[in-house]
Amino acid sequence: MQYLVVIEQGPTSFGAYVPDLPGCVAVGETREEVTQLIHEAIEFHIEGMKEDGLPIPASHSSSAIVEVEV
After folding, report:
1. Backbone φ, ψ for residue 61 (5° rounding)
2. CA–CA separation, 23 and 11 (whole Å)
3. Nearest to residue 17, comparing CAs of 38, 47, 44?
4. What is the largest CA-CA distance in the chain?
5. 21: which residues sit within 8 A by CB, 6+ positions away?
6. pLDDT of 30-59, one tens digit each?
7. What CA–CA distance (Å, rounded) separates 42 from 3?
8. CA nearest neighbour of 37 among 27, 23, 29
9. Can you give the pLDDT at residue 16?
């Protein structure tokens, strides 16, 4: 299964979250680190849902780049 991951760069770190898995987040010092950590967080999150007998949500989120003049 594939999930959309949003990665945001802050002043001193990177953050990531998964819109289709509320509460599934990660923070890292680099883009590469946060990408690895969110991958692990998704696996951990889904495993916890399975253990709790909860349905695993399908991915419904998508993304688009919108160009505007500034």
Report:
1. -80, 150
2. 22
3. 38
4. 49
5. 3, 42, 45, 46, 57
6. 999 999 999 999 999 999 999 999 999 999
7. 9
8. 27
9. 98
Using the CB atoms, write b or e for 33-60: b if 16+ within 10 Å: ebeebbeebbeebbeeeeeeeeeeeeee
pLDDT of residue 68: 98
Mean pLDDT of the chain: 97
Give the amino acid at 14.
Answer: F
The DSSP secondary structure of 3-38, one letter per residue, reads ---EEEE-SS-EEEE-TTSTT-EEEESSHHHHHHHH
**Token pair for 19:** 């819109």
Percent over 90 (pLDDT), the chain:
100
For range 7-16, the mean pLDDT: 98
